[in-house]
Amino acid sequence: MNVWIAIGVTVLGCYAVKLAGLLVPAGVLERPLVRSLAALLPVALLAALTAQQTFSDGQTLVLDARAAGLAAAAVALILRAPFLLVVAAAVVVTAGVRALGG
Amino acid sequence: MTSAGSGLTLLQTCALSLLVFTGASQFALVGALAAGGGPFTAAAGAFFLGVRNAFYGLRLSQLLALPRAVRPFAAQWVIDETAAVSLAQPTRRAARIGFVVTGLSLYVLWNLTTLLGALGAEAIGDTDAWGLDAAGPAVFLALLAPMLRTGTERTVAGLAVLLGLGLLPVLPAGVPVLVAALAAPAVLWARGRARASRGDAPGEDR
User: What parts of the sequence cross the membrane (chain A) (predicted)?
Assistant: First the structure.
């Protein structure tokens, strides 16, 4: 049930901001401070989420095969690999390291 | 696929994809729920990731000049990719065509791959053994990488990583990510002060 509540709240929230952009008069959102904050918020959230999902198990910090997978994804990104290849690199390397007992 | 690996049912996974249709928010919500976060903290993180779509909408509403009645329907397709394609078109007609074609094809493809991924993950069973738990962070990293253009973005990212990992053991699940989001206003504020003390005029520096 909790999952459905979370989905419902997210659906409404994400739709509301999309619609707001189309309906709100330009002046309200065009201030430089609001714009740079909106550009930086995803940076902060994505960075924190990447780190947490790589280096944690529940509420404890761990270093395991996922770190190798993420490193592979980073290398793929530096080589300008397409999105799916980046994700595939992370998955394959993580599975490989885990299979070797890492 | 990451979603099914985190304990969501097939129906929940597809509903999320059909109704939210903003990749980063979907993955964030699933990740927060998997980590044991409450429904509202999980949704808050997903919501903040979706805020940037409002700014795409702002540009698109001037560019596409949509009738008011159409806007509630067009809104669902206001995402990174449709904004990028539409804004690159030379004329309003081309921009409108670009928006509809990109929106429709992405919507169909995205939801089809979600369904196939969820079915596939159910068939596989233990997704961790196949390294699929690394797919989530890899997706986040791929979304993040093109945003790290200047020192400001890198500073925000670094601070957010420190906050997110440092607070993880001490705060309830889902909350550290929201605190890490404060890295954005904190760095903006610090830069504003540094600029003021140098006596520069405030303004954008990209």
Answer: 6-29, 36-55, 67-97
| DSSP strand pairing (A56-57 vs A60-61) | antiparallel
Domain boundary among B147, B168, B184: B147
Name the residue ranges covered by the structural domains of chain A.
63-102
> Could you tell me the residue range of the domain that residue B114 belongs to?
2-147
Q: Do B46 and A23 touch (CB under 8 A)?
A: no
For A100, which DSSP code?
T
Q: What is the pLDDT of residue A26?
A: 64
Same-domain pairing of B142 and B156: no
Same domain for B39 and B98: yes
Phi/psi of residue A63, each to 5°?
-120, 110
DSSP secondary structure string for all residues of A24-92: S-HHHH-SHHHHHHHHHHHHHHHHHHHHHHHHEETTEE---HHHHHHHHHHHHHHTT--HHHHHHHHHH
| Number of domains chain B contains | 2
Q: Do B52 and A41 touch (CB under 8 A)?
A: yes
Residues B15 and B100 in one domain: yes
Mean pLDDT across chain B: 82
What pLDDT does A102 receive?
54
pLDDT value at B43 more than 70: yes
User: Band of the pLDDT at A92, cuts 50, 70, 90?
Assistant: very high
| B168 and B193 belong to one structural domain | yes
Residue B189 and residue B204 in one domain: yes
Q: Does B85 touch chain A (CB under 8 A)?
A: no
Nearest to B138 among A22, A59, A87 (CB): A87
End residue of a domain, out of B147, B170, B192: B147
Q: Give the best-scoring range by mean pLDDT among A56-65, B75-84, B170-179, B181-190.
A: B181-190
Average pLDDT for B85-94: 84
Residue of chain B with shortest Cα separation from A24: B58
Q: pLDDT at residue A100 above 80?
A: yes
Give pLDDT, residue B206. Answer: 43
Identify whether residues B106 and B203 lie together within a single domain: no
